[in-house]
Amino acid sequence: MRLYLLHIFIILAIAANAKKLKLEAFIPEHNPTGTAVIVCPGGSYFWLDYATEGRDVARWLNENGIAAFVLKYSHGGWAAFAFHVRVPGRSYPAGHNDLKDAIEHVRSNAEKYNIRTDRIGCMGFSAGGHLVMQAAEMLAGTPLSPSFVAPMYPVVSMTHPCTHKRSVRGLLGESPKEEQKQAMSLEHHVPDNCPPVFLVNCKDDPIVDYRNSELLDSALTVHNIRHKYIQYKTGGHGFGATPSKTTKEAIQWKESFLEWLKVGSIN
């Protein structure tokens, strides 16, 4: 009984202290292409790797003349992970709504940030990759559709044997229904008007099975979506834009992404 009451107290405390949308802006002095990227760190939908997959990525984008906005989107939190509970307002669709709000904010303030409304994309890592790709699918054809998305070593399927089970827990709670998992499995919902996609993963990823990205690549190909898929043999997981956290092979994604932006892959 005491443990149950402790769980309830923790849930109420977290829910009461839920913060409003937090978006940290990194604006370069010069942005010749007017490009902006909303960055969504990973963390299994339980926490956020805000340093490596957030601020460090944003600083690298700034160095290359791109505006960046790191989103601290809603996620389950340590209590949900440790006590196997679902905190109100912290699981789906909270994170998705946060990203929608972020896109709306950046687009409506384009002049202030010196960016083009048709060059506002989203980049996400691991669970953050799932979040941005889901936005590409669900918001396609609407005023809030990202101009492009870059899911990096993303969680994709929540039904296939390769699924990342911890991310399923973080997003949908402890006992999600089959239809909920189906709805969140990105490979089943690619629309014909999906925005362009830059997709990267590593074959030796020890956290998110490499087949997740292969499933997404196949779905994008079937629907004739403009996309670039790079699978590196080595590189692991969770490296963001930091060379010391991956291999010389995998860190090449940074130059490939910048080149992809330049060659008219967006518009």
Summarize the entry for a quick read:
With 267 residues, this protein is an alpha/beta fold.
Description:
With 267 residues, the protein is α/β, with parallel strands linked by helices. Helix content is 38%, strand content 14%. Strands 1-3-2-4-5-6-7 form a seven-stranded mixed sheet, sandwiched between helices. β4, α6 (127-138) and β5 form a beta-alpha-beta unit. α4 crosses α6 (127-138). The longest helix has 15 residues, at 2-16. The N and C termini lie far apart (59 Å). Residues 1-18 have low confidence and may be disordered.
Q: Count of helical segments?
A: 10
Radius of gyration, rounded?
Answer: 18 Å
Number of strands: 7
* SSE topology string: HEEHEHHHEHEHHEHEH
User: Termini, distance in Å?
Assistant: 59 Å
Structural class: alpha/beta
Share of helical residues: 25-40%
Strand content: 5-15%
What are the low-pLDDT stretches, counting only 5+ consecutive residues below 50? 1-18
In quaternary terms, these chains amount to single chain
Report the average pLDDT across residues: 92
> What is the general shape?
globular
